[in-house]
Each structure stands twice: as C-alpha cells, then as structure tokens.
Amino acid sequence: MLNERLTQALNDQFNNELQASHAYTAMAAYFSKRNYHGFANFFLVQSREEHQHAMRFYDYLVTMDEKPALQGLEAPKNDYSSALEVMESSLEQEKSVTANIYDLVSLADELQEHATLSFLDWFIEEQMEEEKMFRDIITRLKGIEEGREYFLKMDDEFAERKLEE
Ligand SMILES: [Fe+2]
Ligand SMILES: [Fe+2]
User: How far apart are CA 52 and CA 64, in angstroms?
Assistant: First the structure.
C-alpha cells in the first residue's frame, strides 16, 4: 500500500497518460484526412507510446497493492490549421506532462517514498527526450512549406516510425 495522496496522484497520472494517448490519436486523424499518412503514422505510434506510459502507472499501482481507477476522458482538440500547429500543441502537451511528473517526484520526495522515486526516474528521462523530439521537428517544419518536396520527405520519414516495445 502507498500513501493515499501519492496513490491519488499516481492514479491521476495514469489517466493523464491515457488522455495524452487520446489527444495524439486525434492528431493522427487530422493527418490521415489530409492524406499525410506518414505524419498520421507518427502520431499513431506516439499515441500507443502514451498508452504504454499509462500502463506503467497501472502496473506500478498494482505492484504496490493499489487499484488503478479509470476516469473519464475529455474530448481532445480535433482540428488544426497546420502541421506546425499540431507539433506546437504536442510540445505544449509534453511540457505540461513534464510538470505533472515533477509534481509527482516532489510529492514522493516529501513522503520519502523511495520505490516511487525510482519508478519515476524513467519518466524524467522520457520527458526530456519527448520535448527534444518535438522541438527538433518544430525547427525543421518552420523552414519548409507544407506539401512541398521536403515536407513530403518528412512524411516518408515518419511513415517508418515503429513502436518500441
Ligand atoms: Fe507519456
Ligand atoms: Fe509523451
């Protein structure tokens, strides 16, 4: 069993990761409709990654003899004006997840919950990588025009992304 406040916060993050997965699926749909199937693939993989993150919280709660509790998902943003706007929203979403993870770390630290601190380490690293990935994509996208040759090359590149198990 874990401290009640900590259990609640871990469970909230379990649900936040599911919400992130939901939002990325909506972004994939935006690209699918525009026939940018590589960008769509990129976001479908991203969505599945977030689902994996959620399940890490699920498994951790179970390991600590707690019960994961599903909350309702909010409708994500379904419409965007450009690929750049999607990437900028993604970066904002990742930054807010990073802030959530930091709050969790602070709470676990305050409670001296060492197992939880160790569990959360992986997420600190992951958030650094995800923010960097979106920052780099934004930099590339800012220099090119949608639908032109280099944009289509990015679409081909994103078509290759696969889920890492
Ligand atoms: Fe995540
Ligand atoms: Fe993420």
Answer: 18
Domain spans in the chain, listed from the N-terminal domain onward: 4-70+79-159
Q: Residues for the chain: how many in total?
A: 165
pLDDT band at 16, cuts 50/70/90?
Answer: very high
Cα 76 versus chain centre, distance: 13
> Tens digit of pLDDT for each residue in 96-153?
999 999 999 999 999 999 999 999 999 999 999 999 999 999 999 999 999 999 999 9
Ligand 1 centre distance from Cα of residue 144 (Å):
28
Distance in Å, CA 100 to ligand 2 centroid = 12
> pLDDT by residue (tens digit) across 55-85?
999 999 999 999 999 999 999 999 999 999 9
**Pair of tokens at residue 13:** 């993050």
Q: Which ligand has the minimum distance to the alpha carbon of residue 133?
A: 2
- Which ligand minimizes its atom distance to the CA of 15? 1
> 94 is written with which tokens?
């990742």
Question: Rg of the chain's alpha carbons, rounded to an integer?
Answer: 17
- The CATH class for the domain spanning 4-70+79-159 reads mainly alpha
Place of tokens 């934004």: 138
